[in-house]
Amino acid sequence: MDIVDRSTDLSQPLDKLGPDERLKHDSNHLRGNIALDLLDRISAGVGAESNKLMKFHGIYQQDDRDIRDERRRQKLEPAYTFMARVRLPGGVCTPAQWLKLDALARAHGCNTLRLTTRQTFQFHWIVKEDLRATIQGLHDVLLDTVAACGDDSRGVMASADPEDSALHAEVASLAKAVSDHVIPKTRAYHEIWYGADKIASSDAEEPFYGRTYLPRKFKIGFVIPPSNDIDVYTQDLGFIVVAGADGLEGFNVVIGGGMGRSDQDAGTYPRLADVVGFIDKQRLVACADAVMSVQRDYGNRVDRSRARFKYTIDAKGLAFIRTAIEQRMGSAFEPARPFAFTSNGDRYGWRQTDRGLFNCTLFIQNGRIRDEPDRTLMRGLRAVAAVHTGRFRLTPNQNVIIADVTREDRPRIEALLAKHGLAEGHAGSALRLNSMACVALPTCPLAMAEAERYLPDLVTKVEAILAQHGLVDEPITLRMTGCPNGCARPYVAEIGLTGRAPGKYNLWLGGGFHGERLNRLAAENVGESRVLEILAGKLGRYARERRTGERFGDFVTRSGE
Ligand code: SRM
Ligand code: SF4
Predict the structure, then answer these.
(1) 52 pLDDT tier (thresholds 50, 70, 90)
(2) Which residue stretches of 340-483 are H helix?
(3) d(CA 280, CA 168)
(4) pLDDT tens across 396-418, in order?
(5) How far apart are alpha carbons 530 and 199 in whole angstroms?
(6) pTM above 0.85, yes or no
(7) Which among 446, 497, 505 is the best mutation to test ligand 2's pocket, defined by most ligand atoms within 8 Å of the CB?
């Protein structure tokens, strides 16, 4: 396809666009003053512009919100540290990479790793002086944080649930190839974090992104039915795998999904992606380029709150966007092929793959890996990584799969899981195993309420209600976020909770069990007792009145509750 340097080709003058467009444009391809700000020893943080530009490098400045008020009272600057998000297409990593991630977390990340809802690792609490060592440590094992954030294509997801391992391996490698293709090409990352020399070249530094990159973040994911573990309808661009007797044939393409909304702005909303048609596998990269270039050129660069692709589609119309994509792809979409999903959750415990190897999916509550007295997750997974010869696969539900274990190795891995209390997590209720929460407090600057630190206790209280109604084994998806941005994809959950204020949440009910339907607002700005009261009523009726095999979200929707 024809790729142009957008640096000279914006449809409107820069001063008519939002301030972030000017910042990107003038940043010398994401260099800005980052290198200088890293040297500054007066502040533990960086300047506002570096803070924004570092996101393109996968790094966020944060401060400890638990002590923010106290620091303010003491007239101290906020307790700044940094979060770094690893680029890990498809969530696949090797044991050697795991060991390095673990070592870096112990050296610079307060002894904890966080698995995310897009299948990667986050380090929290890194002090500015340790950032380069962390990024260079990742480089030692061929990992980076490029474009894990920023106005670019983010971490590319791929189904982790190993129903058919040969197909999964092929799709995971395509996710990696697409990720490598769509990340920014600037050398800024190498110069700033690895100390690489500047290379003089007359080639355009960003042949696809130009100087202003995308209007907003852009998310791509691959899914292998019948599992919809990646929640494909929430992606900006989703590829639904179509496979025949000879393996992968191509993809049904979906566009325009997104979760983010704001309580204050009625013009923002979650949106499910639309299926636009089928492409054969040879057209994958051309399709990704075409879709992203349409968003690059038509996306809203004046108002960031309307800049996601979903709003571009709604502003221009799906038919217009689809035709623009086809023109740039050089061919039309074929009619979509049939597909069906059954769930967006993970399947726990041991399973055998089509290659005679074994996979074990471990429940990691809200993705938090740290040692607790009864469950030494960090040490246990380190011990597994030291003997494991296969792969680790992170799931979109913040869990981990110890993948490709040989029959001979399985007993010693089982022994390690038992020793460190790792397998016990599976004993939770079906609700707990289908729950997830975003990070929220104390690190997320946007959090208005607790999520990760509160959800386990709330689940325990809901479990008591489930027990009363004989529903403990009923899988129900429950997702909580500390604000309406939707990082745990709460608007496709059967029960969603999004933070409004400390201890207060919006309650959403009726999402589809396999992520096919948005839920609806059931109560606004309510505390725990009201949430439990509402759930007790609905779950009680569900237990008494549901049809055979009917899911909770479907029941709520059918009964108009
Ligand atoms: Fe997210 C911003 C954490 C997945 C929608 N998200 C943030 C930030 C970086 C806050 C910030 O802007 O400073 C959070 C950092 C918290 C912290 O302390 O770590 C944050 N998002 C996360 C993670 C770690 C949640 C988790 O607990 O796992 C997930 C990291 C994914 C990854 O590995 O890349 C995460 N975020 C998501 C998802 C889910 C997904 O992509 O599948 C969404 C909803 C899908 C979507 O994009 O529409 C999501 N995050 C947002 C938004 C709202 C975007 C919007 O369109 O309005 C923001 C705020 C923003 O961008 O302005 C946000
Ligand atoms: Fe932070 Fe809100 Fe995302 Fe939770 S949903 S991590 S509170 S931005």
Answers:
(1) very high
(2) 377-387, 410-419, 430-433, 455-468
(3) 17
(4) 999 999 999 999 999 999 999 99
(5) 61
(6) yes
(7) 446
The residue count for the chain: 561
Report residue 259 as tokens: 């979760």
Q: Distance between CA 145 and CA 135 in Å, rounded? A: 7
* Centroid of chain to Cα 99: 22
Evaluate: CB of 444 within 6 angstroms of ligand 2: yes
Q: Rounded mean pLDDT of 15-21?
A: 88
| Whole-angstrom distance, CA of residue 435 vs CA of residue 451 | 11
User: Strand, coil or helix: what is 357?
Assistant: coil
The single residue of 154, 296, 310, 328 carrying the catalytic annotation is 154
The DSSP 8-state label assigned to residue 487 in this structure reads T
Looking at residue 115, what is its pLDDT? 98
Omega of the bond prior to 456 within 30 degrees of 0, cis?
no
The identity of residue 118, as a single letter, is R
Locus of tokens 């009619």: 335
What's the CA gap between 340 and 240, in Å, rounded?
A: 10
pLDDT over 70, % of the chain: 97
Neighbours of 185 (CB within 10 A): 17
pLDDT 10s digits, 347-379: 999 999 888 999 999 999 999 999 998 889 999
Q: What ligand 2 atom has the least distance to the C-alpha of 444? A: 1
**Closest-lying ligand 1 atom to the alpha carbon of residue 55:** 9
d(CA 491, CA 481): 10
> Which ligand places an atom closest to the C-alpha of 124?
1
- 426 CA from centroid of ligand 2 (Å): 26
Which residues fall within 8 angstroms of residue 524, CB to CB, at 6 or more apart? Answer: 500, 506, 507
For this structure, is 154 an active site residue?
yes
State the amino acid at position 280 in one-letter form: D
Give me the phi and psi of 251, to 5 degrees please.
-145, 140
What is the amino acid identity at position 188? A
If one compares 457 and 426, the residue with the highest pLDDT of the two is 457
C-beta separation of 497 from 490 below 8 A: yes
Question: Residues 482-494: what's their mean pLDDT?
Answer: 98
Dmax of the chain from CA atoms?
72
CA distance readout (Å), 321 to 255, 298, 317, 325, 357: 10, 9, 6, 6, 44
Is residue 7's pLDDT more than 50? no
CA 85/CA 145 separation, integer angstroms? 6
